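Continuing the series of single-chain predictions for the mutant panel. This is the parent chain; the variants come on the following pages.
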Amino acid sequence: MQDLQLTFHRFVDSIASRPDELQLRGAIEDIISTFELRTFAYLLISSPEVRNSGLISNYPPAWTKFYLENHYQDLDPVVLHATRHSQPFIWGPGFTVSDEVESEGEFFDLAAQFGLRHGLTIPIRDDCNTTAAVTFAADRPLAAFQRCIELHLPLLLLISALFHRSARRALGPLRVVGAITLSEREYECLNWASKGKSAWEIGQILGISRRTAAFHLDNMRAKLGVRTVRQAVAHFAADRGSVS
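Parent structure:
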């Protein structure tokens, strides 16, 4: 139990700042290995900050290549179910997940051939209108997999929620502050303001007038719902795990 607590604290610390995709992958691989789970996939299905879906995964490369070449992303019963339901679900050969996919049985049989015999998928919907799914998969007999999930489900739910919070940022554009997307110019002005530059100095750096720089700073403040640039800078620093 103490080893698990240490591993969990290490996981939380490793995703507390703004890790990149490789660091996020390493963090979740580390903690799920304590449950004898080796394989995971995080799919950002839709978000107002990201035009296309994003993926962080350690699925077998051969399966990923096969999956994309055969356009399985268009008929994946796991993804379809995750977009329409909010409760975690187990899938694999013998499971019926979506009545809308006629080739569902064939899909799960093929996945099993690549070592993805059974999986637990946790749909996630947050207050930023984002839909995502975290999946933990294994090439284990169903009974053993179900015992593992039953034993660790509460912690897997927490891990998934924490991971999603960091992964959404990693897969989203860098000009998102909190849940608010700034224009490129608004973000540039805020970035320079965080370095202590005045509107006049920002104008000189960006090749715009002081008045234009102030205009973008005003728009940025309105979007973030703050009264001063100093408050906006505090949000900017907090969002990036910095100390203001």
